[in-house]
């Protein structure tokens, strides 16, 4: 099927959805929506997920849902700040802006994650040589963030080994439009936003807004400035038909320093300024998104929902000349939910989407222009069956997916150019089995097994090899998808005054990908191989207590990984005369073994409340080989951060908040490349003061 036919099909589906809504409106009378009685919640921070497919996992999987209220009260400045507060997530440790869930570690974190905004995938297809982050949406415009730690291949396909981050804007809450003004000043800059919502009759809701961020970064003359505008509507023809549409535009201008040595930071600190102005890096970014959500009930037992999306934009974030990564994605995620029997249901899902990247850059001012084009098509069908038998809940899931990778690359040097056009069709299957048992009114345990996969990324899909003695080309790799097995055992309950959530997990990837540089018959080549066997183990816990006006929360995560060679990996090392790496058994690179989060909220009265939060980040390896353990800078030491904040609810419409982040002024680094005084560092935020206001009208 050609791209034009696929796109035409998606447009036709969208038109059909709109037609159904208007047809339902003409033939029926709007009825009041049925209220849904929520079940007892074990944790006040837990709310129901916003997507039916995520809701299906709720009984046999720990799902973290961070609400708009949570984000407002804690003064988060970005999505990265929100994610840092989750015990099982590290941001920045494996590289600039990278998000690591459940200890994937260096080189794997960017591949073993799926990030979606309103159902649209925004995960970077290739992270080299231009790094990126996922701060695409201002926190003021986010309704909730759903996090699935570890797994999710049946629903989301390739790249779910670490987990899923689903960012939901106000697209799904447009039936309740809100008008508000938000502003915040902090010692690094300011942010402000305005939102306007209204109803146009009983069935139409309209919402629009604008947000501005102006923030100084660590070094002299470094900054991040962004403008974000959006608009949308929701139309409810009746209780069984609804459609919502949202458009957003992000335009960001930034300047930063990425490769700064330890000795320079130690000597100059904030005042470090590179010798050449050209050493400053620009981080410009633009993103347009179009999202439509359509829902229809076919009677009481059959429900359809579809998310249709189109995104395009670019980002730079590079030290290279003329470097720019253009991106585009479009497609749909459609679900049909059938309730059968007394408490059973079957979810049938269809994913059809296209992702494109176009990279241009130069390594030197007079160097050859690199021109790389990547295209990935996903066509997948999945089902997730859920059955309840007494106190037991069983789920079974299966996904069959076809990935079509295409690339057109022109690189090399002026004297030795390298080019190639190729494609790779890949069929994959994922499955899961789980069982949950309610041993009491609130207590639940579950066991879960998942078999998933991660496809090669844009860099790994291309081998750089000699086609003959004199010509080097890019060709599709013959390496296979990474396959992983994930086992989980979890518990949710109320013990005395405390609610508790506990998960033990173990995963194994028995054919992890690597793209080494080996000498072939005619010269040096880059080829992708299934070289490693990697095992990960972990414990995730969280506790919550409500003691009158005092609310306490504790979270702890333990992560440990170990890597060794596959048979192919050992054979490759031997055949190329290379020494095997003496992999350490003390943990994977850039994965803190311990992370602790302690939080206390005290509400003096209906207006005043205060919060204290302490986060401990454990030490971690900055080495791969055990023999490198004792070299200077090869272990990053632990550190702790203390944050204080307050909230004053002046009346039902106006609230003030403020606080101090990193109260003790702790010096720490989000990223450390290792190597002692010559290490490349990304300094963490110093002590920051902030105060803000939220007014609803």
Automatic annotation (TrEMBL):
UniProt signal peptide: 1-23
UniProt KW keywords: Cell outer membrane, Membrane, Signal, TonB box, Transmembrane, Transmembrane beta strand, Transport
PROSITE patterns with a match to the protein in the record:
TONB_DEPENDENT_REC_2, TONB_DEPENDENT_REC_3
What residue stretches are annotated with the TonB-dependent receptor plug domain? 58-164
Give the subcellular location: Cell outer membrane
What the entry lists under CDD domains is as follows:
ligand_gated_channel
Q: What membrane topology does the annotation report for this chain?
A: Multi-pass membrane protein
Q: Which GO terms describe its molecular function?
A: siderophore uptake transmembrane transporter activity
Principal location listed in the UniProt entry? membrane
Which GO terms of the cellular component aspect does the record hold?
cell outer membrane
InterPro entries named among the record's database cross-references: Beta-barrel_TonB_sf, Plug_dom, Plug_dom_sf, TonB-dep_rcpt-like, TonB_rcpt_CS
Gene Ontology biological-process entries: siderophore transmembrane transport
Checking SUPFAM superfamilies in the record gives: Porins
Family the UniProt entry places it in? Belongs to the TonB-dependent receptor family.
Database matches in PANTHER family: BLL4766 PROTEIN, TONB-DEPENDENT OUTER MEMBRANE RECEPTOR
Give the protein's recorded name.
Iron complex outermembrane recepter protein
Q: Which organism is it from?
A: Selenomonas ruminantium
């Amino acid at each position: 099927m050609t791209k034009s036919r696929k796109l035409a099909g998606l447009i036709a589906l969208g038109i059909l959805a709109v037609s159904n809504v208007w047809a339902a409106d003409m033939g029926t009378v709007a009825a009041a929506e049925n209220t849904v009685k929520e079940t007892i919640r074990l944790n006040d921070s837990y709310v129901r997920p916003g997507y039916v497919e995520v809701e299906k996992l709720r009984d046999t999987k720990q799902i973290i849902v961070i609400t708009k209220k949570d984000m407002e009260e804690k003064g988060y400045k970005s999505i990265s700040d929100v994610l840092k507060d989750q015990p099982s997530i590290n941001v920045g440790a494996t590289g600039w802006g990278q998000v690591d869930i459940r200890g994937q570690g260096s080189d794997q974190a960017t591949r073993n994650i799926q990030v979606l905004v309103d159902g649209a995938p925004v995960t970077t297809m290739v992270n080299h040589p231009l790094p990126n982050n996922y701060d695409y949406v201002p926190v003021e415009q986010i309704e909730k963030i759903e996090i699935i730690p570890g797994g999710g291949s049946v629903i989301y396909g390739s790249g779910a080994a670490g987990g899923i981050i689903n960012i939901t804007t106000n697209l799904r809450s447009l039936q309740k439009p809100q008008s508000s003004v938000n502003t915040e000043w902090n010692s690094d800059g300011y942010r402000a936003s305005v939102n306007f919502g209204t109803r146009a009759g009983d069935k139409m809701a309209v919402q629009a807004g604008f947000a501005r961020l102006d923030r100084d970064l660590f070094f002299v003359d470094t900054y991040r400035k962004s403008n974000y505008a959006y608009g949308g509507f929701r139309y409810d023809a009746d209780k069984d038909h609804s459609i919502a549409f949202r458009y957003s535009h992000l335009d960001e201008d930034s300047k930063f320093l990425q490769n700064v040595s330890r000795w320079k930071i130690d000597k100059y600190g904030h005042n470090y300024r590179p010798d050449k102005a050209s050493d400053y890096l620009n981080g410009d970014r633009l993103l347009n998104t179009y999202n439509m959500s359509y829902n229809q009930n076919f009677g009481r037992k059959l429900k359809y929902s579809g998310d249709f999306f189109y995104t395009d934009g670019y980002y730079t974030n590079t030290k290279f000349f003329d470097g720019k990564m253009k991106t585009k994605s479009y497609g749909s995620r459609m679900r049909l939910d059938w309730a059968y029997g007394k408490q059973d249901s079957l979810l049938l899902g269809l994913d059809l989407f296209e992702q494109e990247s176009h990279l241009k850059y130069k390594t030197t001012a007079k160097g050859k222009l690199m021109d790389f084009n990547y295209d990935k098509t996903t066509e997948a069908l999945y089902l997730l069956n859920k059955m309840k038998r007494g106190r037991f809940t069983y789920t079974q899931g299966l996904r069959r997916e076809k990935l079509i990778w295409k690339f057109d690359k022109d690189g090399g040097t002026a004297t030795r150019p390298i080019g190639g056009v190729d494609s790779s069709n890949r069929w994959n299957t994922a499955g899961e089995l789980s069982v949950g048992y309610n041993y009491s009114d609130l207590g639940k345990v579950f066991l879960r097994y998942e078999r998933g996969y991660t496809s090669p990324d844009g860099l790994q899909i291309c081998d750089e090899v000699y086609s003959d003695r004199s010509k080097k080309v890019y060709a599709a790799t013959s390496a296979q998808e990474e396959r992983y097995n994930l086992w989980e055992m979890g518990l949710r309950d109320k013990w005395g005054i405390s609610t508790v959530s506990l998960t033990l997990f173990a995963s194994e990837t028995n054919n992890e990908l690597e793209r080494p540089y080996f000498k072939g018959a005619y010269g040096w080549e880059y080829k992708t191989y299934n070289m490693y066997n990697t095992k990960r183990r972990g414990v995730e816990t969280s506790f919550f207590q409500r003691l009158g006006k005092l609310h306490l929360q504790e979270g702890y995560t333990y992560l440990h990984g170990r890597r060794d060679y596959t048979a192919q990996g050992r054979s490759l090392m031997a055949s190329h005369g290379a020494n095997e790496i003496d992999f350490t058994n003390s943990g994977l690179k850039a994965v803190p073994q311990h992370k602790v989060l302690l939080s206390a909220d005290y509400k003096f009265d209906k207006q005043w409340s205060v919060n204290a939060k302490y986060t401990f980040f454990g030490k971690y390896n900055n080495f791969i080989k055990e023999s490198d353990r004792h070299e200077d800078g090869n272990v990053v030491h632990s550190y702790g951060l203390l944050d204080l904040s307050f909230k004053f609810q002046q009346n039902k419409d106006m609230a003030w908040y403020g606080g101090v982040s990193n109260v003790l002024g702790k010096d720490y680094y989000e990223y450390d490349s290792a190597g002692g005084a010559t290490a490349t560092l990304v300094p963490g935020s110093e002590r920051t003061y902030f105060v803000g206001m939220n007014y609803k009208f």
